[in-house]
Amino acid sequence: MIALLLKLFWTFFVIGLFNFGGGGAVLSLIQGKVVYDNAWMSETDFTDIVAVSQSTPGPIGINCATYLGYEVITQAGYGTFWGVIGSATTTLAVVLPSFIVFMLIIKLFNKFHENKTYILTMDALKPAIAGLIISAALMLLSQINLWGGFSFELSENIFSHWSSWLFFVGAFVLGYFKNISPATIILVAAVLGIIIY
């Protein structure tokens, strides 16, 4: 039990160290560590966890870490109490690097905010973050495995039903063109999902 908690802590601490650009940008890293490196769960289970994490309040990266900590511990055969401890462990681990870096930035920002190296570094990170977000989207839509070689096959369980495509297009149109609140879109999709499925 302690060994698994320590492994979870270290895994999500490392994920937290590279959490540039928010949770969406780090989803591919989380998937790589949880699904491929440690085989704690399947791609399908991971996709379900991401969907739930996206629809609950708060940053998706932290929500995902919290849910994964609980799932990994309980699937290993330990009870609900240890599942909660697992959630607390992964949540603390994923936010701790950001907290440490944030405290350092507060102390150093006034000293370096006009430094050319700092400005160039921030400019270089922007396209890298965009690439990470696109990578996360491709991984959730497919069976792509960047960790074990590049092969792109559309996952059978993603968008396999015609209504999934309607939900996708409808959510995009309502959110992008009509500026409907994401919370409203999620609630409408949930109700329609219950009715259709």
Largest sheet: none
Strand content: under 5%
Number of domains: 2
Categorize the overall geometry: globular
Write up this protein.
This protein has 197 residues and is mainly alpha-helical. It has two domains: 2-152, no CATH class; 159-197. It contains eight helices and no strands. Helix 1 runs parallel beside helix 5 (80-112), helix 2 runs parallel beside helix 4 (60-75) and helix 4 (60-75) runs antiparallel to helix 5.
Can you summarize this structure?
The protein has 197 residues and is mainly alpha-helical. It has helices at 2-17, 23-37, 43-55, 60-75, 80-112, 116-141, 162-177, 182-196. It contains 8 helices and no strands.
Topology:
Elements (H helix, E strand, L loop, with lengths): L1 H16 L5 H15 L5 H13 L4 H16 L4 H33 L3 H26 L20 H16 L4 H15 L1
Helix pairs in contact: 1-5, 2-4, 2-6, 3-4, 4-5, 7-8
Give short descriptive properties of this protein.
single chain, mainly alpha, globular
